Amino acid sequence: MTTTPSTQAMLSPADVERIRGDFPILQTEVNGHPLAYLDSGATSQKPLAVLDAERDFYLRRNSAVHRGAHMLAAEATEEFENARATVAGFVGVTADEIVWTSGATEGLNLLAYALSNATFSPEHAALRLSPGDEIVVTEQEHHANLIPWQQLALRTGATLRFIPVDDDGVLRVDLIDEIITERARLVTFSHVSNVLGTINPVSEIIARARQVGAIVVLDACQSVPHLPVDLRALDVDFAVFSGHKMLGPTGVGVLYGRGPMLDALPPFLTGGSMITTVTMEGAEFLPAPQRFEAGTQRVSQAIALAAAARYLDAIGMDRIAAHGAHVGRRLLDGLDAIDGVRVIGTAGHQYDERVGLASIDVAGIHAHDLGQFLDDRGIAVRVGHHCTQPLHRRLGLTATTRASGSLYTTDDDIDRFLQGVSDARTYFGVTS
Prior knowledge:
The protein is of the alpha/beta class and 432 residues long.
């Protein structure tokens, strides 16, 4: 579940400075300016504890897991499975409900293809999608939580529907009964928008999905790094998140599946390590989660991801969430004071319904030009459509500039960004 952060729990400036000492890259200078890294929504920086965990594995225990009977293989397997248990505990579930993937994109595609495989397997008829069935997404979704479902609809004959946003980007929750009907077989949506920073009304959407018996899939990429998240309490059937957004390495992510649901899925990738018996005529498969982990696994990355989870736990997700709310408040207050700046998705939302992220459109300045101007000052932001072309199109935009913080973001980082946006208006001559 998510909780509303309290100011009492917030990280102090001294806490943030101590945390920054664990991230060597934050000492980087860009064009003679100290780096203000405000692109954590794309990928977070990594603390020494994570870097050391991956390096230590290669130095001391490097071996293939679930294979071989020698000491290194046994130690590697134990650490690999301990990592699974650690990450599972971090999000409130059990180890056998966690499937390692290369990232959230692979997790969503794995799920979509496994569901389409159910179409051809009599034993998986309960998961079969057919013409007349509906898949429901939202107009806020990252392409990774849209295109796999478009493709699944094409393969199965199902219809794709979406919950729209209003002119400010706010999800039209008032329409969910109209959009999520008895024909809905699957409802999938983001916990936190990667463009708007808004925390979506998970309980309302899931309650409606449960009324009609739909499978619920949650994109938790932008929530797991920033909020206390208990997937069991949220009552989702499946969820995905990525390691590289939660202080972990690239190349590893998680697909969570509620035990009975994961057990019911047919495999997607096949080959070694996911079988019990193979003959020339056929094969029998291991139970979940190993049934979905064919081939050589991302062992060092999983171990480093577990180190990231322990690092976040040690600081406290309630404190990290409170810091994120503070970052978001400082961003919005500062941006509201700058003429010509449109902050996307803020109308009608309180600060405690957001994470520390804001996407903006500055009248008269293209997002890419603004990003270049800020980069010259050592301020790293994301520019473009952020893999959400439908959302940007709905809001009449082709691109925005996004500033996204993390537990290592300082007030000075935010203030430099705000000053940079203000100065850019003068530099590009759009202050009138």
